[in-house]
Design a protein that fits this description.
With about 900 residues, the protein is mainly β. It is built from 8 helices and 57 strands. A hairpin with a 7-residue loop joins strand 25 (about 455) and strand 26. The chain is globular. The two termini are about 50 Å apart.
């Protein structure tokens, strides 16, 4: 598949605004184009599609645009690239994260206290920022990071588990959150469940196979979740489920079942001691320690998605097993006389391997109904509109059926969905987006989550869409800055992952978790004539800061500093001095960032694949560009590699540390911009060096015109290679470094570069992944930090007593202090010291993707799961 076919644009201030600016009238489907990704589509992409359908029209599209593709493929590519950094050239053995966390705990801490800069509301509809590349007015309102687990009781207690920020508790039905899992080694959430005794079960390791799904360290149980906090001693069993992801926990009798990426496991609920029992693994040879464990496809050979337990007989269990893209082992299994056997003859619910992919079950409280969502690998591979096989019900209440189909994607599409255009209809990302729950008092009342929230009150005969993907394209929408979303009611963020029901003061509600946090409405809520709910409440009040940053930028802005950063599926945030609410000035995914230290409203931000945009006014706009395109204040300046697909999903973008007007961008080529924020076209980039066919940059750094670019290619475990090129910004002196073959610099992903401001030949190199102890593969090697003092001719391992944990970013402070951002937080090493310390006392143990020093002298850390934090580096000594 060509790289460009994976790509799509996902931003706009509206579906129809560009056409309105040109005085055209077309349908939503015509404007939207193909391959829309949450949350939005760039206006330029809309216009590119318009040009195809309306020949001769004036174009607003600019260099660097491409024609999109399937969004599911884009997220899959993102998943691949994220995994590559941590696993290539092989796979990660169980115990890696646990060992790294134990080593981290044995290190001393420095002084200094971090401040959570982004612990305040983040308004995706902030009316200040309605520029051409913003999603403001889409209708989601206040958002946070991805919520992948939810549980609630009937006394107002709600528990929300985030993608990589841990578990939070609310005592008021949502909002006013407090973290309760920060003492655990893994903050990635697979599932949250309350059992019949009121205990909270936390399954770590997000299992939706997306790009930023971190592995977990098992299952933990909190006996008193209303008051207590999780600790390491709360783990169930041993390390059997370490380095796995857990899709679902289910209870039957006195047993808990876990559907994981290494098969299905079970444990007693009466005692939490003793090991987990492996109930079923379809391909055990591919598990760690097996004869095929080193096979490149091993991680995809034992994926379990859910477990259905017969309410009348807990010994009768059906397993939903299978890799979302398809494999011969995909299917349903139950225990027979010869062990676990395939289940067939289920009625409308398919049982063949081609049509059983990601599956979610839900059972009614009275045991009279079982429901299921099934994603079909065949549909995903052949149908550009949807990968959904359907939603099904077993009216017998038995997981063996017979099952009846009650919804397909066409019916859901025609029930009030916002996704009605070619190439993006309900279930197009069913392998990534699924939840299902049944009203505890009404077995015919069901909520289903895909990209949107769906509801049926009659057992599936009819459906509505209380939570549409967005409000763009609906007649009620407008870009009016006086309103959140025109005359449309508020909706939820796109991409649904978790759901729960509960009540407070006798009032029942449903809460959904998605890529934008948590949202609540009455269980039997109100809706308008189109079936869109009129009563959603965002629970993202800023106290649950689980925003997933890839980057951070800091610059002066009037009374202080402005802080900005790129986010997974939540665009670009902007926090200016005096703000009590962050705004969103760019939509879609936000990648790398450059902010002018002299003026924080000069911002260059990457969407994905080096699709760079620039603004010189923080993208402040009242939407007037709709009627006058010249009033847009954001400009697409994507380097050519963005159009050809020769850049990574989150590609490196950086400014020279001595000249903030000189930028370096890395795809297959190293691109240089010397116009700073005055750049207005992708054609203004200069190609300084070709890294080579199949090679793509992973990190870039520049000082005084000396440029270093790390790359990989192939970047997966099938022939993984890496290297570093060095040269000058003017295009002279470029050459590939000859990296040592003796393992001095490991054959793993090169993730970060830092240049000594006083000596451009002095460079630090951060290396991702785990060492050879945990990573199988040729040349994996040891160490995570390497140093050269001769421009890359020779290298030295300076890891010292650094824990064996993936390193993502490195910074060299003026006094010689070295700071390293890892998957488990920030570590520092003082000048003339060989020992590492944990930076500060209060930074959550989560992934740190980027480190920046601001013009205020503070060190900023962009975490992928707990927001942006800052500390005075002088306090880290």
């Amino acid at each position: 598949m060509a790289a460009t076919s994976r790509r799509s644009r996902k931003r706009t201030a509206a579906v129809l605004v560009t056409t309105a600016a040109l005085g055209l009238t077309i349908t939503q489907a015509q404007a939207a184009g193909r391959g829309v990704d949450p949350f939005g589509v760039r206006a330029q992409h809309h216009q590119a599609r318009l040009n195809e359908q309306q020949p001769g029209r004036v174009s607003l599209a600019t260099e660097g645009d491409d024609e999109g593709g399937n969004e599911g493929e884009e997220i899959a590519e993102q998943a691949d690239q994220y995994a590559e950094a941590r696993t290539s050239p092989g796979i990660v053995a169980p115990g890696a994260y646990g060992a790294a966390y134990a080593a981290l705990k044995n290190l001393p801490h420095t002084k200094g206290k971090w401040r959570d800069v982004t612990r305040l509301p983040y308004d995706s509809d902030d009316p200040r920022y309605r520029d051409i590349n913003s999603n403001s007015s889409g209708g989601a309102g206040r958002v946070s990071g991805r919520v992948t687990g939810l549980a609630a009781d009937n006394r107002g207690y709600v528990y929300a588990g985030s993608a990589n920020g841990g578990v939070f508790r609310s005592r008021t039905g949502g909002g006013h959150w407090s973290p309760i899992s920060d003492r655990l080694p893994a903050l990635s959430t697979g599932d949250l469940q309350l059992d019949g005794r009121g205990r909270l079960w936390y399954a770590t390791g997000e299992a939706n196979t997306s790009a930023t799904s971190f592995l977990g360290t098992g299952v933990y149980v909190l006996a008193d979740p209303r008051h207590g906090e999780f600790g390491r001693r709360d783990r169930v069993g041993g390390d059997e489920l370490e380095s796995t992801s857990i899709h679902a926990l289910r209870f039957g009798g006195d047993k808990v079942w876990a559907a994981t990426t290494s098969g299905v496991w079970s444990h007693s609920t009466r005692t939490l001691k003793g090991p987990w029992k492996q109930e079923f693994a379809p391909n055990p040879d591919y598990l760690p320690g097996g004869s095929k464990a080193s096979d490149p496809n091993a991680p995809y050979k034992n994926i379990a998605n859910d477990i259905a337990i017969d309410p009348k007989d807990p010994s009768k269990v059906v397993l939903a097993v299978g890799w979302r893209s398809g494999d011969t082992y995909n299917g349903f299994y139950s225990k027979g006389s010869h062990g676990w056997e395939r289940v067939t003859g289920l009625g409308d619910l398919p049982s063949d391997s081609d049509n059983v992919g990601n599956v979610t079950f839900a059972r009614s409280a009275d045991g009279s109904r079982y429901y299921a969502i099934d994603q079909s690998p065949e549909q995903m591979n052949t149908n550009p509109d949807s990968g959904l096989e359907g939603i099904f019900v077993s009216k017998s209440g038995s997981p063996t059926g017979p099952w009846t189909k009650i919804a397909g994607y066409q019916q859901l599409r025609d029930s009030g969905s916002a996704l009605t255009y070619d190439g993006y209809q309900p279930g197009v990302q069913a392998w990534y987006n699924q939840f299902l729950t049944v009203d505890p008092k009404n077995p015919d009342h069901v909520y289903a989550g895909l990209e949107e929230v769906f509801e049926t009150k009659d057992g599936g005969r009819s459906w509505t869409v209380p939570g549409p993907y967005w409000n763009f394209g609906f007649k009620c929408w407008s870009i009016d800055p006086a309103k959140q979303s025109g005359d449309c009611p508020a909706t939820v963020h796109a991409d649904q992952h978790a759901v729960t029901t509960g009540s407070f003061h006798g009032k029942p509600y449903v809460i959904v978790g998605d890529d934008g946090g948590a949202f609540r409405r009455p269980l039997n809520g109100s809706a308008n004539a189109e079936g869109h709910a009129t009563d959603w409440t965002s629970l993202n009040d800023g106290t649950m800061d689980v925003l997933q940053y890839y980057s951070v930028g800091v610059g002066t802005d009037g009374r202080g500093v402005a802080v900005t950063g790129g986010l997974q599926d939540n665009g670009q945030s902007i926090l200016r001095p005096g703000d009590r609410v962050m705004g969103s000035n760019f939509g879609g995914d936000g990648g790398d960032t450059i902010a002018d230290p002299r003026n924080g409203c000069n911002i260059a931000e990457e969407y994905v694949y080096l699709a760079v945009s620039v603004t010189q006014n923080c993208a402040v706009n009242d939407g007037s560009w709709v009627s006058d395109p010249s009033k847009a204040t954001s400009y697409s300046v994507a380097p050519p590699d963005s159009a050809t697909g020769e850049a990574r999903f989150i590609a490196p973008l950086n400014a020279d540390i001595k000249d903030s007007d000189t930028w370096v961008a890395g795809g297959r080529h190293v691109w240089i911009n010397t116009k700073g924020w005055a750049i207005r076209s992708g054609s203004e980039w200069t190609g300084a060096f070709d890294l080579g066919a199949g090679h793509t940059a992973t990190a870039v750094a520049s000082s005084g015109g000396r440029v270093y670019a790390a790359w990989c290619g192939p970047c997966n475990n099938q022939g993984f290679t890496r290297g570093i090129a060095v040269g000058n910004a003017d295009g002279t002196g470029w050459h590939q470094l000859t990296l040592p073959t003796d393992g001095t610099v490991p054959n793993r992903y090169l993730s970060g570069l830092a240049i000594d401001p006083a000596n451009a030949d002095h460079v630090l190199l951060a290396v991702n992944g785990f060492s050879r102890k945990w990573t199988e593969g040729p040349g994996a090697g040891y160490g995570h930090l390497f140093e050269t003092r001769d421009g890359g001719v020779t290298w030295k391992d300076v890891s010292g007593n650094l824990p064996d944990v993936p390193a993502n970013a490195v910074a060299m402070l003026k006094d010689g202090t070295v700071v390293l951002g890892t998957d488990l937080g920030v570590l520092v090493r003082a000048p003339r010291s060989a020992g590492w310390k944990v930076a500060g006392e209060n930074l959550p143990t989560t992934a740190v993707m980027q480190l920046r020093t601001g013009p205020d002298g503070l060190l900023y850390a962009a975490t992928h799961g707990r927001g942006i934090w800052a500390v005075d580096p002088r306090r880290l000594r």
